[in-house]
UniProtKB/TrEMBL annotation:
Keyword Cell membrane annotated: no
Keyword vocabulary terms for this entry: ATP-binding, Nucleotide-binding, Transport
Transmembrane intervals: none
Annotated source species: Candidatus Chloroploca asiatica
Domain of life: Bacteria
GO molecular function: ATP binding; ATP hydrolysis activity
InterPro entries: AAA+_ATPase, ABC_transporter-like_ATP-bd, P-loop_NTPase
Pfam family, one: ABC_tran
Domain ABC transporter: 5-235
Protein name (Swiss-Prot/TrEMBL): Multidrug ABC transporter ATP-binding protein
Gene3D superfamilies listed in its UniProt record: P-loop containing nucleotide triphosphate hydrolases
Length: 327
């Protein structure tokens, strides 16, 4: 998979303060890249450099193969940027807002009307075409801003804290819209300090703290590196007239000495009683474990692998670090 974003030793200073330090970042084409870090970690600084709004102090960054330092106009043709604030647009209707930016992007006047209608439909704002921009809800403003970023059909969308301040329904609507944009072939870089906002939509993540990239890559690879084994939670149905502990002991004895079993833990006080098994094998090993239990007469009502989420990843890779830096 080719990279649409690549940075090399990217550094940005504000006087004596280092906002970014030696940032080496790669975002594959077609990815939804979650850029995660606390407030002040350097997320916005990175995004402003990638959108040519800010020059690096040292290093280089490329978008679709174009240098953000030497080929700024070409980079801007490839990028749609949605900042973390909407701006003030008094006495302007939604379609006028989009027409203004369409003219700024030098989009052919013959195409503008149809393009604006299509984008309003995509972000589910057709019914607000004539509405005053400042009268829209926060969620609608975010969707309108997202429509604006796509006027020139950019390959890369860079969204800085797009869900900030949204109510739960608006966050769900935004998440579904981003999924649709990915299906349309867009690469999306999205920043947030609220991990649950990104958990269900990201294919790749980067974690930044104090201007330093701590880890970056596809979510599954990072999870495997943090937890090389998998833990399976197994719920048991005790046999008729059998105490839960007896059933658990029987199941534990069946699997304890199997290849690839690292640990077995009994949970007799859970409802229903549970067995937790750590494995270091592949899916064939998992299948063999389940078959061995059933073949041994164990009645199983639930068998599933426990998974880490983005919050688990963040807590593990930032363990012992303190927040700080500048945004």
């Amino acid at each position: 998979m080719s990279a649409i974003v690549e940075t090399r030793a990217l550094t940005r200073r504000y006087g004596d303060m280092v906002a970014l330090h030696d940032l080496n970042l790669t975002i594959p084409q077609g990815a939804v890249y979650g850029f995660i870090g606390p407030n002040g970690a350097g997320k916005t600084t990175t995004m402003r450099i990638l959108t040519t709004l800010l020059l690096p102090s040292e290093g280089e960054a490329y978008v679709a193969g174009h240098s953000v330092v030497r080929e700024r106009l070409e980079v801007r043709r490839q990028v749609g940027f949605m900042p973390d604030f909407f701006g003030v647009y008094d006495n302007m209707q939604a379609h006028e807002y989009l027409e203004f930016f369409a003219e700024a992007y030098a989009i052919n006047p013959a195409r503008r009307s149809r393009l604006i209608d299509d984008l309003l439909e995509l972000v589910d704002l057709t019914h607000k075409k004539q509405a005053d921009v400042m009268g829209l809800s926060r969620g609608m403003k975010q969707r309108l801003s997202l429509a604006r970023t796509m006027l020139h059909d950019p390959a890369l969308l860079i969204l800085d804290e797009p869900a900030s301040g949204l109510d739960p329904r608006a966050r769900v609507e935004l998440r579904e819209l981003l999924k649709e944009l990915r299906r349309l072939g867009k690469t999306i870089m999205i920043s947030s300090h609220i991990l649950t906002e990104l958990a269900e939509m990201c294919t790749h993540i980067g974690i930044i703290e104090r201007g330093t990239l701590i880890t970056s890559g596809d979510v599954n690879t990072i999870l495997r590196s943090l937890q090389p084994h998998r833990t399976f939670e197994i719920h048991l149905l005790p046999g008729e007239g059998t105490e839960p502990l007896v059933s658990l002991e029987h199941a534990a004895a069946l699997v304890r000495d199997l290849p690839h079993v690292l640990d077995v833990r009994m949970m007799p006080d859970e409802h229903p009683p549970q067995l937790h098994v750590d494995l270091d094998g592949d899916d064939h090993v998992v299948s063999a474990l389940l078959a061995h239990l059933i073949g041994g007469g164990v009645q199983i009502t639930h068998f599933a692998g426990q998974t880490n989420d983005l919050e688990d990843i963040f807590m593990q890779v930032t363990k012992g670090s303190a927040y700080g830096g500048t945004n």
